[in-house]
Known about the structure:
Elements lengths: L2 H4 L11 E4 L5 E4 L9 E4 H7 L2 H22 L8 H26 L3 H23 L9 H6 L4 H12 L6
Antiparallel strand pairs: 1-2, 2-3
Amino acid sequence: MSLGAIMPHLSSKCRRFLAGDGVTTPDFTLVALAGVFEGMSFDARAAKKQAPALGEAFGIAKNLDEYQHRICTLVPSLPDSDPAKIRLQKYRIGIIAAFAKLAVLARTGDAAEWSRHARLLLEEASNAYVASGSGQKPHTADVSGVFLFLGLSEAAVDRALAAMYGTGPRD
């Protein structure tokens, strides 16, 4: 999975990545995203018994999916010059990369570290989304460690978004 594989999906039709979230449904079903991650589906209850860390991961994934969808539907209404648009897209890239990483880790049940990083990403995406509606600048935490865990360079993400929107790098 690479940043180059994710970028085209920022302009595509908004959709949810989970067909079953493993929290409100008995299954955890991740719908494939071409070139980024493969689809997968399994019995969430059995998976949580085998690897308890997956229970927390499923809850975080459910919320990440909600926020990536909200961001996707909001972003077209924001001007390209709005720093909130770039910030939201940055978090959406992180969320897509988080799903790609989870698609690999869920097969092994080793999701504790993923959950720690994904929770921070969720908090930042949520804060940025809420702030964009209120016109306030959100408090931003250092997410460079999250991006590194997900296999992306935060600086490369900033450069790609600056090129996409014709702006300088934003924080």
